[in-house]
Amino acid sequence: MPIAGIVVEPGNSVEYETGSWRTFKPVHSPERCVSCLRCWALCPDCAVRVEDGKVVGYDYDHCKGCGICARECPPKCHAIEMVLDRDDED
Amino acid sequence: MSKRVALTGNEAGAEALKDVNPDVATVFPITPQTELMHRFSSFVHDGVVDTELVHVESEHSAQSACFGSAAAGARTVTATSSQGLMLMAEVCAITASTRLPVVMPVVNRAISAPINIHCDHSDSMFCRDAGWIQIYSEDSQEAYDNIIQAFRIGEHKDVLLPVMVCMDGFITSHTMEALEVIGPEAARAFVGEYDPAFSLLDPETRISIGLLHMADTYFECKRQQIAAMDAARQVILDVGRDYGEISGRSYGHIEEYKLDDAEVAILALGSTCGTAKDAADRARERGIKAGVIKLRTFRPFPGDLLAETIKRVGAVGVMDRSISFGLQGGPVFAETRSFVNDPTVPLISYVYGIGGRDINATEIESIFDELSDARKSGSVGEVFRFIGLRE
Domain coordinates of chain A in residue numbers? Predict the structure, then answer.
């Protein structure tokens, strides 16, 4: 290990899978989503996956289940639901 | 060029920092250390050094600024005492475990409450497990010499640990003594150009420090600190020998005084060793073969060396100027006994000098008498004793 546990490779936090911390996970409803990208902009873990300008789901290896995406999703869309993330369903 | 000067311990500390010319000093006043950084700040003002002097709003900030400065790759110092050290204790542990070789004179003072400004070692002993190297100085000369050596010891690539250089508050810090200084040219050549192991400001090596380490890696970080302390043992000897070559004054983990034929000895830290040497001379005039073991490095603790020395002498009183409440006696005794571990060697704990309570040569002579009795009778009696306490 590098001295004092310093990190010598920039940007390696992607290797640390914080998804295991999660209790609730976001579930996306594409039919309700208008892809305003608020969730993408506000996710603290860059765990909202976007392709061609549209939300396509989540990076569950890094999503901690904080629920900010569901909270910030416009109420009239309500495209994200937080559900209990049970190990036995994985 | 060496010259002989008259300085107080605080002035000697400032002189050592001036002769080294560190990159950054973070300063906050506290009795009895105030005068040390006060004097150093006048060197900064006068342009004698080109140190960046940072006035901070507390000791917590002083050590935090040291952390930032040292992480940026600068040779960094601060100084404190007592409550100041207590307030910065949180950050002291972080500086050590981030392996930043800050140098910090600690002018030992009792800790509150009751509030007290005089000397005991409760403050530095409070931080004995913070991961810092701790060197104790008998007088102004040693404070000066130890501060200069501290840079070479802490910055050594096998060590990379911060170093506290302790001197006794008022007894040493405010007493004027004659000492020899090696001067800026020799001191700067001795410590050399600072080449930090890593630097946040180095664009070639993009690093992150101060990160989260969980159960899967934290333990290994601590293991590295253990190895660094172990490596410091040899580095302290090498640096002490090299310093002897330029100054005529060599240093090791302990200093022996009249131990060759000694049958009793006391083991102590700091200025008390000077008093004890006088007491040993007096005891010898009365036919008691007395000696002194001066413990210079409390961290890393030279346990094997002490045990070998104590067994050679045969009966030793261990003097603690601090108390570990709930553990009888003090830390020096407890740690020493854990290495001696021989019931046939009389080892007696003496707690003394708390809150600046004076200790004199007559009292230490009486310790030699008690040790002689214990040696002759083979019976220690009460192991945990106090000197100068009104019961």
Answer: 18-89
Cα A78 to Cα B293: distance, rounded to the nearest angstrom: 77
Report the predicted TM-score, pTM, of the whole model to 2 decimal places. Answer: 0.92
Sign of the CA dihedral B225, B230, B234, B237? positive
User: Of B209, B218, B220, which is closest to A6 when you measure between CB atoms?
Assistant: B209
Q: Identify the CATH class of B254-386.
A: alpha beta
ipTM over 0.90: no
Asked if the domains at B3-247 and B254-386 fall in one CATH topology, the answer is yes
Chain B residue at shortest CA distance from A6: B209
Tell me, yes or no, if B156 comes closer than 8 A to chain A by beta carbon. Answer: no
- Domain B3-247 fold: Rossmann fold (3.40.50)
Where do the structural domains in chain B lie, given as residue ranges? 3-247, 254-386
CATH of domain A18-89: 3.30.70.20
Q: Are B262 and B290 in contact (CB under 8 A)?
A: yes
Cα B257 to Cα B119, B181, B274, B276, B321, distances in angstroms: 24, 24, 10, 9, 20
- Tens digit of pLDDT for each residue in B84-142? 999 999 999 999 999 999 999 999 999 999 999 999 999 999 999 999 999 999 999 99
Position A86 pLDDT exceeds 80: no
d(CA B182, CA B204): 37
The conformation of residue B33, written as its DSSP 8-state character, comes to T
* Cβ contact, residue pair B206, A10, below 8 Å: yes
Q: Count how many residues are written for chain B.
A: 391
